[in-house]
Amino acid sequence: MQPESLCLHAGYEPANGAPRVVPIVQSTTYRYDSAEEIAKLFDLKSNGFFYSRIGNPTVDAVEQKIAALEGGIGALCTSSGQAAVLLSVLNIARSGDHILSASSIYGGTFNLFGHTLKRFGIETTFVDQNAPQAELEAAIRPNTKLVYGETLANPALSVLDIESFASLAHSRNLPLLVDNTFATPILCRPLEHGADIVIHSSTKYLDGHAIQLGGIIVDGGKFNWRNGNFHEFTTPDQSYHGLIYADAFGPSAYIVKARVQLMRDLGCCQSAQGAFYTNLGLETLPLRMARHSANALQAAQWLQKHKKIQSVTYPGLADDKSASLAKKYLPKGSSGVISFTLKGGREKGMRFLNSLRLISLEVHVADIRTSALHPASSTHRQLNDAQLAECGIDPGLIRISVGIENWEDIRADLEQALEKI
Ligand SMILES: *Cc1c(COP(=O)(O)O)cnc(C)c1O
């Protein structure tokens, strides 16, 4: 099936007389006929639900749907995107290990890698993803366990050269993990370009309606965990009587381990109700991504011509720094987020935001409703102008997450707000 059909049909096939729509299985637990059957489940010798922290039928339907959309062999839903990023990394790296990450990544991931994981003994080197190959190679150490980046970085909006990052990682027997939140599998499928693991904050476009937090990890199933570098997969897990994941589960070792070991112990699971909402969003994802992308391109092109605008960043613009990578990796559209710089700095930025009527002020992106944020007066307000410049943020920078309203209404609101500054 094509993505449009997968969004509606993958993950749940109703039996004769069963509910047409994936049901919310609001049960923490499951009944079995014999103690032997339950013992087999705990020994991972048979498949089945036994406790909703580890697996739940509603959550399972969403996992199968997103795995199908990304072209992976399995997936694991989490309570948030942050939890997905955390588990995706802890499943591979432990104290004493090292991560190589692109520096253009989500602020939450940057803090997790740069500060919190450091306290766990995992060190991260951040690199400019467009640095020369030799510089990137030099950043890989003997204890490096993975390479990490974002398809379309939040908030920098730079496009990752996934194929070149995959060959960098694979040349050193390392997996490439890609956060595909902003692109979604409708605009880009990183596994097809050589990524090994894909991560999402489903809170963003997969949900789309700004109603449900969630995350997901998708396993491509192709990475060889037995290349000598990954003891997590080739040495016995004492918590399962000495089970060796790579031996017991072959190509699905990564995603099985994330579930039965890390989700069991860390507990950051998605709920049945949450998965139901995410599924509702997924059903219309292809329609929404096309509209978000079309509206964002129109907004970017219109703003670029406005005399009060200094610059616009959107990978879909022909003269954008990521234009050629966007052409390759995002041929169907560059998603809904744009950023632009107003002439006149911090104060003008705040006045512009206060003048908006239709467009709402939100600390969120990927909402079906257009929203705007001024980093200098919100997410980055502790920084002075010099510190902002160090982060590559102009005091007049505005980020807009373009929704699916009629473009003429979005344009009218931008126009009247720009008239007031
Ligand atoms: C929002 C976001 C996250 C974190 O997801 P939450 O669901 O907010 O925890 C991770 N990566 C990217 C790219 C994001 O935009």
Blueprint (SSEs and pairs):
Blueprint: H1 3-9, H2 35-42, H3 57-70, E1 74-78, H4 81-90, E2 98-102, H5 107-119, E3 123-127, H6 133-138, E4 144-150, H7 162-171, E5 176-179, H8 184-187, E6 197-201, E7 215-219, H9 231-234, H10 245-249, H11 253-266, H12 272-283, H13 285-304, E8 309-313, H14 323-329, E9 337-342, H15 345-355, E10 360-361, E11 371-373, H16 385-390, E12 397-401, H17 407-419
Parallel strand pairs: 2-3, 2-4, 4-5, 5-6, 10-11
Antiparallel strand pairs: 1-7, 6-7, 8-9, 9-12, 11-12
Pyridoxal-5'-phosphate binds next to helix 4 and helix 5.
Describe the fold and architecture.
The chain has 17 helices and 12 strands. The protein has 421 residues and is of the alpha/beta class. The strands form 2 sheets. Strands 1-7-6-5-4-2-3 form a 7-stranded mixed sheet, sandwiched between helices. It has a 5-stranded mixed sheet with strand order 8-9-12-11-10. Helix 8 links the parallel strand 5 (176-179) and strand 6. Helix 1 runs antiparallel to helix 3 and helix 3 (57-70) packs parallel to helix 12 (272-283). The model has no long low-confidence stretch (mean pLDDT 95). It binds pyridoxal-5'-phosphate. Pyridoxal-5'-phosphate binds at residues 80-82, 85, 106, 108-109, 150, 154, 179, 181, 201, 203-204, 213, 215.
